[in-house]
Amino acid sequence: MEKPRTRKVARELQIQTIKATARRLLDQRGASELSLREVAREMNQTSSALYRYFANRDELLTALILDAYNDLGASTEDAEAVVARSNRRERWLVATRTIRRWALQHPHEYALVYGSPIPGYHAPVETIVAATRVTNVLGRIINDHFQEHPTAFDPSSEKRVAEFFELENLRFFMPNVPAEMLVKGIGAWTQVFGFVSFELFGHYENSVRDFEAYFDEVVTRLGHDVGIF
Amino acid sequence: MEKPRTRKVARELQIQTIKATARRLLDQRGASELSLREVAREMNQTSSALYRYFANRDELLTALILDAYNDLGASTEDAEAVVARSNRRERWLVATRTIRRWALQHPHEYALVYGSPIPGYHAPVETIVAATRVTNVLGRIINDHFQEHPTAFDPSSEKRVAEFFELENLRFFMPNVPAEMLVKGIGAWTQVFGFVSFELFGHYENSVRDFEAYFDEVVTRLGHDVGIF
DNA sequence: TGTACATCAGTGAACGCGCGTTCACTGATGTAC
DNA sequence: TGTACATCAGTGAACGCGCGTTCACTGATGTAC
């Protein structure tokens, strides 16, 4: 009994158009500057029409944040999935480079999710799942290594690390990684995004000349540090 | 011929009051939400009165950015200056902890300078100097170590690093640090601010339980990494 | 030291603007019988 | 298959709001002679 349902399709399409337009505007101005009226104007529609699709401005923003996390996550997953599973070095390099490139290509979407929190806005739970996707790609590479080269957990460092980490959460997607390496792994994750933020937000301006080369240098070191190279 | 110049004094005081009020509002809402009218209202003044002190909103923002960099810089300098010069370990720990604590105490000022760039706003040159102060504290600690334990510069790694770093700039305040360690030093700097941003912006929410302990863990590792412990 | 004038801080009204959101409506598209 | 009704997308006017900035002004504070 499935009818063409052109209305449902049209609706979905319209939602996509709105988000795409908003994203385009986002890449010109910033996140806090995004206005429903401008999105509507850009689409040659009345601003009130948008309320058929999003209850208010916050809901649009939430959708954009979700999309940003998912887009970054999917890009990284896809790029990394192409590499042979056993080639951990390449998987790590590809994954981290994809993160950086995505950020450079979508600077305002990156800032939307990794920059200053939007004042007054509080992210709903759904975004947390989406946010985890990129991180999981990196975590899985590390875990795969230790799955193939099992390493005993040192009880004393397990205990020590459990005091400042949410060990159960981390072990949920990195069950084979010893505590010591979890510390380094979270450090590497921080470093990658710290780098990208510093590059994007202009803090490397007087110290780095070739960002691409330096990034490769950094992530290569991180790969060693984390024990997978 | 120096008169009391109460007018000049009053003016200076008024500028400070305006900035303090703006800072207070900043810590409630965010940077982009800051409005001249609200600052004036908060001071029981007309908004037009503020134009005696700042030509426009951007100028107020610039002043706040400058103050933030300088305040963070001065705090770090002061805290670190108390430690015996030869005690590099303690200097490093004190300096990095001061950075984190300052950020926690002034989250919106931190976001103002290390978060997403404000759309449409372009920082004037003066801010660059102010921005360098914190970084220099860290750099000086590393340099002091290598000044006391001189290490020959390996020509091949010098050459390699010069390809992606602005070596001359970095050597200006770290003249004794070999290229290899400059890479690690900039990495450590990135890591410290990456950590603070992740903590403040909520990205560690599901992995870190005790931020203070984990931070100490991280900066201790960085101290070793950078060769000064 | 006293007076005349210049400088400056702050006022209050006004400008034009763009915003988010609501509401009663029109007309097209889908659904049920 | 054809008709009557329900659903939905989009319109256009209107709301109340707070914003940055300008301007002619008043009154107090400083300066020069």
Can you put this structure into words, describing what you see?
The structure is a homodimer of 229-residue chains. Chain A is mainly α. Chain A is built from ten helices and no strands. The longest helix of chain A is centred in the N-terminal third of the chain and has 25 residues, at 57-81. At the A-B interface, helix 5, helix 6, helix 9 and helix 10 of A face helix 5, helix 6, helix 9 and helix 10 of B. Chain A binds a DNA duplex (33 and 33 nucleotides) through helix 1 and helix 2.
Question: Could you provide a short overview of the structure?
Answer:
Two copies of one chain form a homodimer. Chain A is mostly helical and 229 residues long.
Summarize the helices and strands and which ones pair or pack:
The structure is a homodimer of 229-residue chains.
Chain A: H1 6-26, H2 36-42, H3 57-81, H4 88-105, H5 107-114, H6 125-148, H7 155-162, H8 167-173, H9 179-200, H10 211-225
Chain A binds a DNA duplex (33 and 33 nucleotides) through helix 1 and helix 2.
Low-confidence stretches of chain A: none
Tally of separate helices of chain A: 10
Chain pair sharing the greatest interface: A-B, 48 and 48 residues
Class per helix and strand makeup of chain A: mainly alpha
What oligomeric assembly is this protein in? homodimer
How is the main sheet of chain A built?
A: none
Q: What is the 3D form of chain A?
A: elongated
Mean pLDDT of chain A: 95
Beta strand count of chain A: 0
Integer-rounded radius of gyration of chain A:
21 Å
Report the portion of residues of chain A in β strands: under 5%
Distance between the termini of chain A: 55 Å
Order of helices and strands of chain A: HHHHHHHHHH
As a percent range, the share of helical residues of chain A equals: 55-70%
